[in-house]
Design goal:
Protocatechuate 3,4-Dioxygenase, subunit A; 2 domains; 5-stranded mixed β-sheet; 7 helices; 19% strand; binds benzoic acid; binds fe (iii) ion
């Protein structure tokens, strides 16, 4: 076979004709087509191609049990959000990226408990209901939450100053499908920048910051789980999230209350902030169009 610039693509596509199954063949041929198109467009030198391979090698070498640099790469290229959105349920609360900090199980907590084990930040109440898309409450649904502290660090990033489980909780909705917990308002924070993905952002002149948010995974039997965030409406970077994860429906006003009586009812001190966030879960089998 005469292997030249114009015959290369067909030769490789043909080599996958007998792949184990149709899906494998489709994926391998699509990867080949898009990769070849990329190379024909960019026309890298041999040295540039070696640099690209060195970069991906370093991304792999930075992965271990507590760090996933490939996920970070997928995040900053917007691919995580694209796949999340394509696979989301058409009805129900919108999903967003899982992120790398759900690496430990959240401790089981009672409704109304605080997930802030330290104190010091702005007191915050988060409350809402878990329902199906027609607003029928889902009692006994699980609501798994995790967040960074008021300085922008997760417990696993500061094992010397934060107790394990700080900023995390696993709740069950009550007989009306409602949940609520106490916490502190999380801060915006930078994604890890001490690896090759950080260098990529730096060389592109991009900032590494994420707007303040609380992560949620909600689950109820017979329904599709949702992995999502609540974004603090007045946080910096709400319009320029480094991982493109903000959706309008997930931005929530963490409204300030100075009402001492209301604060006492929630077991916090005024002034405090209150975020209301209802979660709607689509029935199982409800697929993206
Ligand atoms: C996070 O929100 O925890 C996160 C998401 C994507 C990349 C880095 C962090
Ligand atoms: Fe986060």
């Amino acid at each position: 076979m005469d292997f030249n610039e114009s015959t290369t693509l067909d030769a490789v596509l043909t080599s996958f004709e007998n792949a184990a199954d149709d899906r494998t063949k489709q994926v391998l041929q699509a990867v080949t087509r898009h990769l070849h198109e990329l190379v024909r467009e960019v026309r890298p030198s041999m040295r540039e191609w070696e640099q690209a391979i060195a970069f991906l090698t370093e991304v792999g070498n930075r992965c271990d049990d507590t760090r996933q640099e490939f996920v970070l790469l997928s995040d900053v290229l917007g691919v995580s959000m694209l796949i999340e959105t394509m696979n989301g349920a058409p009805a129900g609360t919108e999903g967003t990226v899982l992120g790398p900090f759900h690496m430990v199980d959240s401790p089981a907590r009672e409704l109304g408990d605080t997930i802030d084990l330290i104190g010091g930040g702005t007191p915050c109440v988060v409350s809402g209901a878990v329902t199906d898309p027609s607003r029928t409450p889902l009692p006994g649904a699980t609501v798994d939450v995790w967040q960074c502290n008021e300085d922008g660090f997760y417990d696993v990033q500061q094992p010397d100053t934060q107790p394990p489980g700080n900023g995390r909780g696993l709740f069950h909705t009550d007989h009306n499908g409602r949940y609520w917990f106490r916490t502190v308002v999380p801060s915006h924070y930078p994604i890890p920048t001490d690896g090759p993905v950080g260098r990529l952002l730096h060389s592109a002149g991009r900032h590494p910051n994420r707007p303040a948010h609380i992560h949620f995974i909600a689950h109820a039997p017979g329904h599709r789980s949702v992995t999502t965030h609540v974004f603090v409406a007045d946080s910096p970077y709400v319009d320029s999230d480094a991982v493109f994860a903000v959706k309008r429906s997930l931005i929530v006003d963490f409204a300030e209350s100075t009402d001492a009586g209301e604060a006492a009812r929630y077991g916090v001190t005024a002034p405090f902030r209150h975020a209301r966030f209802d979660i709607h879960l689509a029935p199982e089998g409800d697929q993206a169009p």
